[in-house]
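Sample entry (296 residues):
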Amino acid sequence: MNAKPQLTEEFSAGTARLRVDVYGGEPRHHVLDDLTFLNYRLADVKISPVVTLAGPDIIWNQDGEKSVRYDGHAVTFTGAWPAGPIQKVIVAILSLRMEAEGMHPSHSAAVHYRGKTLLFLGGESNHGKSMGLIEAGVRGALQVASETTVISEDGHAVAGSVDTFLVKRTEGTERSDKASPNKGVEKFWGPIMPTWGMYEGTPNIDIVIVPAIDGNFDPATNALIPFERQFQMLHSLQNYFLTNELLAPGHVMPMVDNDELRAKRADFVNRFCERPFFFIRAANPQVLLDEVDKIL
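Predicted structure, serialized as tokens:
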């Protein structure tokens, strides 16, 4: 594409950077008007004051028939797209750039509790990480991360998202199947959301908890064998690449992953999963933390 883009913008998460070039259409001041979703998913995303990358990672040509494709170097959007799919692809590509910098976004919450840093892993089912975070906070824990914990190569939590829940969704990300998080808070803790403090620093993750909260469960705690640890952890990492999601009606997420990246990811998972992992079934967050207390 020889024409000059009407907008070039660079996003950063830590030392990882991503460039977006926009062509055609109505003039835009920013690629996205709101970074709430990016910060919820990747802890701390900023728009850089200057563009430093030589070429784009995402190209958006606003004119033409709607399509999306990946050529191994950049994702190209064509046509009129709402903000939701654009921000999802920014998350996916920026996650890859973070991995290249030795930072692994993990779908998990983390707390510093009773002298240990615990990771509540979303894993395959994602049933209880946020509720575990809240109840741990009620019991005096300090929050390390909410929706996403960014983990270094040596297993430290180097960054974390702050908001406990995603309070608003942009066009293209609506989900009527997601219950209002406030209803869960009211059910377990009453009408007022509990509060807690934030942990300062980059703690080593000591123990990983895979929670399963359901009102019908009798409490049960099981130490996971190596395969189960790595199975759940890989689910948590792959969550950022949208390989199992529809990007928009009639359009799937381009396959931005490859065998080399997956092999490197599997190596990280193998090393990270040497630490203790526990699968805990519980009827509610209070019982979940009762079970956690037993293993500490």
